[in-house]
Amino acid sequence: MNPIQSLVAPDMIAQVGFAVVVTLTFTGALIAVLPRSILYNVLGLALGLTGVAGIFLYLGSPFIALMELLIYVGAICISIVFAIMLSRPLHLSLPKRYLPKVGLALGVGLLVFFILSAIIAKTPWQPAPARSSDWSVETLGRYLLTRYDLVFEAISLVLLVAILGAIIISGYARRRPS
Amino acid sequence: MNSLTTYLFIAALLFSIGIFGLFQRRTLIGMLIAIELMLNGASINFMAFNRFLAPDPIVGQIYTLFIMGIAAAETAIALSIILALFRSIRSINIERARELRG
Asked: What is the spatial distance between Cα B51 and Cα A15, in angstroms, rounded to a whole number?
């Protein structure tokens, strides 16, 4: 037993870590939604997605957590930042905010949350009778290339079409005289 | 920390924050960010069911990977549309985009 374990129980460290991760997620989500400056929103999104990666870690999948960091924080947030930087300084002109619209949006959000939590609380969740405990990346790769082969190829095609479409759309708009 | 409903409530709250942001924002990039939050709520749901209920703990991870791929494709398309729209109306406020003609 190493000295840190004798001072603090590992279980308590895990719980504190979980609280930190959840706080990170919701702080990031609120920063991503509330401020009017888009740059703050993107940074909040990056913070919240880092927290989500931590939640994935607690759900037992380090591979998906790393993918979350790589794809969401590394690719999506950075490409949004690039899109902001390539256009005019948008963060100087903050859009106005209508209070009735914010109130209605808050109402809809709360309504959705209450409906979802009622469903979650009422459903008796039953685990599957026989559960395998194979979490390895190796099995994941084997499944991707055998049983989910078609879906894997379909998503590759979707990504290819999306890249080509993005190039065509932005290039077409540039050539058009405005 | 080790029960299914905790994670489901976290996912539902994240999804609701995403919906709130989607209805409240007036800029396209803000709405895109809100959609990313909603997709992440769905991913947490998949991973939680995968961890606590599913017979095979690989399937949920594969679904989460596919959600990430869809989100990446969606972001690429949406950002290029936003850039094209920005060049024609000089703003990313959706209330100024009143025509669909390219």
From this structure: 18
Name the residue with tokens 């840190």. Answer: A4
Name the band, by pLDDT with cuts 50, 70 and 90, for residue A90: low
Inter-residue contact B6 to A25 (CB < 8 Å): no
Q: Which two structure tokens, joined as six digits, stand for A37?
A: 């400056």
Instruction: Answer whether A158 sits within 8 Å of B80, measured CB to CB.
Output: no
Which residues in chain B have Cβ-Cβ distances shorter than 8 Å to A55? 7, 10, 44, 47
CB nearest A109 (choices: B16, B25, B61)? B16
Q: What is the mean predicted confidence (pLDDT) over A132-144?
A: 84
Set of chain A residues whose Cβ sits within 8 Å of the Cβ of B71: 71-72, 76
Query: What interhelical angle do B28-52 and B4-24 show, nearest 10?
Result: 170
For helices A10-33 and B4-24, angle between their N-to-C axes, nearest 10 degrees = 10
Confidence of residue A60 (pLDDT cuts 50, 70, 90): confident
